[in-house]
Amino acid sequence: MIQEALNTLEKKLNLPMATYLEACTHCGLCAEACHLYRADPVAKHIPCFKADTVRKVYQRHFTPIGKIFPWLYGAHDLTEKDLDGWVETVFQCTLCRRCTIECPLGIDNASIIATARQILTQSGKAPSTLAEHGRLSCDVGSPLGVTREQFFDRIAWIESELQEEFGNDDLTVPIDQEDADYLFIPASLELMKYPRTVQACLKIFIAAGVKWTMSSNRFDVTNFGVFLGDPQITKTIATRDIEEAKRLRVKILVTSECGHAYRALRWEAPNWFQEELPFEVKNVIELADEWMAQGKIKLDSSVNHKSVTYHDPCNITRNGGVIEEPRRLLHASVQEFREMTPNRERNWCCGGGGGFHSMPEYKDVRLQSGLMKANQVKASGAKILATTCANCQLQLNDLNEHYNLGVECVSVTDLIADALVVQRS
Amino acid sequence: MFTLDQLTLIVFPFAVAWFITLMILRTAVVLRRGYKTELGLEKGSPRRGVLYSLTFSMLPWKKDSVRRHPLTYAAGMGMHVGIFATVFFALGNRFWAWPDFAIPIFGACAGVGFISALGLFLKRNMMSYMKPITNPDDYFSNLVVQFYLLSGCLAAFAPTLIGLWRLSAIILLLYVPLGKIYHMLLFFVSRILFGLQFGRRGVLKHDLPLSY
């Protein structure tokens, strides 16, 4: 087990990883950049402390000076007891990378922590529910175990709702249409818990009048391999999405409002496979923004009259670069939009990322870690809290209840769909 | 018998050779790990990201940590200014004679640097959250720098102490490649990697209104 862990670490040691492991000066400025530490100031929540788990092993086993003078760095041989001690430290992290933005050296602690997660997953020490969701993602195609029949049921229901909205009984949701321009893949969480959001996305596609499709093979874009740091699961799931987009010969694969799925497919997948994808990957928010600019969709802000604030999901904003698009859409869709502070790439993580929701044993920590976000929401004074990530929405709903925020949590597409000017047949 | 001045003059070139050799070796170990350019369509400019990462993103008002810990930021800046000023002074001294008025200025910079480094040392010892992220290297690195800056400051006002300053420089040169002060090189690598990735993803946009 230990040798396997060291082999895994060695494989991950490229220039960026070695730099991040060697460059940290332990200045401690990352501590207060972390929402977990701000809510509960204990050592295990300091990002560089988390990264030190791997750093000390790296120094002991892979650096000449660490081999000769391990005491200088507090470095030591890796033991199974160490790995047991890592679990809480590295899985109680949302991989949001706010600490990277604040670090004077720009050290990516999240990539180090992801390596630690990979080692733990390989050693069979990952939290059981998270590991189970990863297995379900691979075996069933959905971490929630959503079957094809359930998918068709949901779509049939949404289809009837859309027929009513557009006043068109012939309206159908295209499934498995080859040569469409867009392949839209939702998240199972949206299908099962937030079907209104899926309906909103489909409404936007229909209103834009574009050639699009969904897939009966890939109806869940989530990728739990990312949370586990497991390259096998990660690549298996991403390959399915990529192959389906190739099979249907689409030009653009559109991810729903699922933060990690967008980041994984848009930014990480080409690196995992070391090749450019033969199609573009976009978030539904990016597309809606483009279509609004092109005049394909028209929005009427008068229907959304309550004040709205926006939570930047870390994987969409800080790690995805989709920053101004939701803002432009919200300005066009609602009468009063209020920014939280800080926002954009410096936004506070809500505490729901990194697979936290799939680790019920850490529920109290998760809720506590949302303190900074809850304070932001309260300070905004808004009545509606919008976001573009289903996972964040789940956490924001929990925070709403836990901190008694008194807001309504919705997705940005929900608001866009309400504001859409629809041509009824 | 050698005086400290004579002894340090003899040893200094060996310390420089040690410093250069080990810095090259340690850097080679890191660089041989290899770097693959990120793939995927660019949303922003990696080049602009790097430029921004090395310049404006370091400005104090761009960092939440500075707003919360202005003294730490000031101490960090003070220490680095002290180090750079004294190194610049020492290097310049090899090629030209500094005017008399410049020497106390460099001395003052070293003094400020020493006080800053001392402050950071005290912070590391006094703040409870710093203990779990501190190892012996963090103490040694700070003490070596403190000795270098204090002796540099003293030598600026008492030239007879130049041997002591040279001794501190020798110790610094010997220690830098071993400990965390090595970040003087990796700082740039790390900031460039940061700028490449966040710039490519269109996250770093310095023309946007400030987030705070």
Give your account of this protein's structure.
The complex is a heterodimer of chains A (425) and B (212). Chain A is α/β, with parallel strands linked by helices and 425 residues long. Helix content of chain A is 53%, strand content 7%. Chain A has a four-stranded parallel sheet with strand order 2-1-3-4. The longest helix of chain A is centred in the middle third of the chain and has 19 residues. Chain A starts with a helix and ends in a 6-residue tail after the last helix. Chain B is globular, with a radius of gyration of 20 Å. Chain B is built from eight helices and no strands. The relative contact order of chain B is 0.18. By secondary structure, chain B is mainly α. Chain B is 69% helix and 0% strand.
Task: Give the SSE map.
The complex is a heterodimer of chains A (425) and B (212).
Chain A: H1 2-12, H2 15-23, H3 35-39, H4 47-62, H5 64-68, H6 70-73, H7 80-91, H8 98-102, H9 109-122, H10 128-139, H11 148-166, E1 182-185, H12 188-193, H13 195-208, E2 212-213, H14 225-228, H15 231-247, E3 252-255, H16 259-273, E4 280-283, H17 284-294, E5 307-311, H18 325-333, E6 336-338, H19 363-369, H20 371-380, E7 384-387, H21 390-402, E8 408-411, H22 412-419
Parallel strand pairs in A: 1-2, 1-3, 3-4, 5-6, 5-7, 7-8
Helix pairs in contact in A: 1-9, 4-9, 7-9, 11-13, 13-22, 17-18, 18-22
Chain B: H1 4-31, H2 46-54, H3 64-68, H4 70-95, H5 102-126, H6 136-157, H7 162-175, H8 183-200
Helix pairs in contact in B: 1-7, 2-8, 4-5, 5-6, 6-7
